[in-house]
Amino acid sequence: MINKFKVVLGVLLTLGMVFKPIQVTPTVSITLVILGIVGALMVLDGLMKIEI
Questions:
Q1: Is the pTM of this model over 0.85?
Q2: How far is it, in rounded angstroms, from Cα 52 to Cα 49?
Q3: In angstroms, rounded to a whole number, what is the distance separating the alpha carbons of residues 14 and 51?
Q4: Nearest-angstrom CA–CA distance, 43 and 7
Q5: What is the pLDDT, as a whole number, of residue 18?
Q6: Cys bridge to 46: 3, 31, 37, 39, which one at CB 3.0-4.6 A?
């Protein structure tokens, strides 16, 4: 249950990085990129734990 939630949250964070608003400050942009990377890692981690 927790792993599936982690995957969903990770996907949302990754999508947030990909579809980030064009008019954002550099700080926000960097933050979104970092969150996106963390999200992608969470997806990988969650998928590895879901698959046996």
A1: no
A2: 7
A3: 21
A4: 4
A5: 67
A6: 3
